[in-house]
Amino acid sequence: MTTIIDGKQLAKDLNAQTKDRVASLAQRGIVPGLAVIIVGDDPASAIYVRNKHKKAGQLGINSVVRQLPATISQADLLQVVTEYNQDPAIHGILVQSPLPAGLDEQAVVAHIDPAKDVDGFHPLNVGRLFANLPGHHPVSCTPRGIMTMLDSLHTHLRGKHAVVVGRSMIVGRPMASMLLNADMTVSVAHVYTKDLSALTQQADVLVVATGVTHLIKETDVKPGAIVIDVGMDRDENGKLTGDVDFDGVVKRAGAITPVPGGVGPMTIATLMQQTVDLCEWSEERGTN
Ligand SMILES: NC(=O)C1=CN([C@@H]2O[C@H](COP(=O)(O)OP(=O)(O)OC[C@H]3O[C@@H](n4cnc5c(N)ncnc54)[C@H](OP(=O)(O)O)[C@@H]3O)[C@@H](O)[C@H]2O)C=CC1
Ligand SMILES: Nc1nc(=O)c2c([nH]1)NC[C@@H]1CN(c3ccc(C(=O)N[C@@H](CCC(=O)O)C(=O)O)cc3)C=[N+]21
Ligand SMILES: [Mg+2]
Q1: Where on this chain does NADP(+) bind (predicted)?
Q2: How confident is the model over 225-270, as pLDDT tens digits?
C-alpha cells in the first residue's frame, strides 16, 4: 500500500533524458563541461566526487576534477575558480563542501560566476529562488531532485502542509523555498523547535535533513504522509541509513524514500541535469 519512491529508477529516467539532451547538443558541436573542485582528502567527499565524475562520463558530459591540497591559500583557490569562470568549455562549477578549516567557503561560492553556479549556492541564485523570480536560474540539486520525486507521485501539493526538518543552505532552506513556491504551506523545524513530533504529525509532506540517525519514528508521522529522507548517516554497525526509521515509518506513510537508493542518486542525476541546463542557457545567451 505504501509507495516506496525508487530514487535509483527515477535517477535512471532523468539521466536518460539528460543523455538525449547531451546528444542533441553534440550534433551542434557543443559539449557540456563540469568542473568539480575538491580541496583536501575527506574520504566521503572523494567518493561523491568520483560518482559524479563517473556519471558525467556516462552521459557525455566533459567532467574535470581538480584535486587541490588542504594547504592551498584562499587566494590560490579563488584563482582556480577564476580560471573556470573564464573557460568557455566549462558551464558548471562545483566546489565540494565542506572545505578544510581556514578556507572561507562563502567567499569561494560568491566568487563563482552565477551563470556557472551548478550547485545554486551563489547568493544571487539563492535570492532568485527565495524571491521566486521568473527566468532561468540554478538551484540546489538535492531539493530540486526532491521536487522531481514529488512530481513523479502526481499528487496535489497546493495548499497542503509541508514540514522541513533542518535549515541548512544546501537542503533545508532551499527545500522550504521550493515547496513554498509550489504553493504549499511550509513549516521549517530546527534544533530549537519545541515539540517536533506534534509538528511533524501535521505534515502532508515531510522532508527530513538533519544528520540525526532515525530522528523520525512511526508515531511522528501522519498516516498517508509523503516522507522524504535526505539523511546519509551511519548506524551502529557502520551501515548507511537515514534520518527516518524506515522500518517503522513505512507502515504508516503513504510514500517514502529509502536510504540508500532514494534522494542520493537523484542529487547526482539533478547535478547532471543542471549542468546541461547551464550549457543550454549559456547557448541561448550566446555565451557558448
Ligand atoms: N542525499 C543527499 O544528496 C544529501 C544528503 N545530505 C545529508 O542530509 C543530512 C543533513 O545535511 P545538511 O543539511 O548538510 O546538515 P547540516 O548539519 O548543515 O544541518 C542540519 C540541520 O538539522 C537541524 N537539526 C539537527 N538536529 C536536529 C534535531 N534533533 N531536531 C531538529 N532539527 C535538527 C539543524 O538545526 P540548527 O540549524 O538549529 O542547528 C540544522 O539546521 C546529513 O545526513 C547529510 O549527510 C546532505 C546533502 C545532500
Ligand atoms: N558542493 C557540494 N554539492 C553537493 O551536492 C554536495 C556537497 N558539496 N557535499 C556533500 C553532499 C552530499 N551529497 C551527496 C551526493 C550523492 C549521494 C549518493 O549518491 N548517495 C547514494 C549512495 C551513497 C553510498 O552508498 O555511500 C544513495 O543515497 O543511494 C549522497 C550525498 C552531495 N553533496
Ligand atoms: Mg552540511
Answers
A1: 166-168
A2: 999 999 999 999 999 999 999 999 999 999 999 999 999 999 999 9
Is the C-beta atom of 215 inside 6 A of ligand 1?
yes
- Unique residue bearing C-alpha cell 523547535: 193
User: What are the grid coordinates assigned to 98, written together?
Assistant: 565542506
What is the C-alpha to C-alpha distance for residues 198 and 221, in angstroms, rounded to an integer?
Answer: 9
Q: Whose atoms come closest to the Cα of 262: which ligand?
A: 2
Amino acid (one-letter) located at 198: A
Q: How far is the CA of 122 from the centre of ligand 2 (A)?
A: 19
ipTM over 0.85: yes
Return the DSSP state at 283: H
276 lines ligand 1 (CB under 6 A): no
Cell of 200: 511533524
Q: What is the pTM of this model?
A: 0.98
CATH number for the domain harbouring residue 87:
3.40.50.10860
Which of 54, 141, 232 should be mutated for ligand 2, with most atoms under 8 A from CB?
232
Q: pLDDT over 70 for what percent of the chain?
A: 100
Using alpha carbons, select from 211, 203, 167 the residue that is nearest to residue 185: 203
| Structural domain count, the chain | 2
Domain that holds residue 191: 141-264
Final residue belonging to a domain, choices 94, 113, 132? 113
Distance between CA 244 and CA 208 in Å, rounded?
A: 7
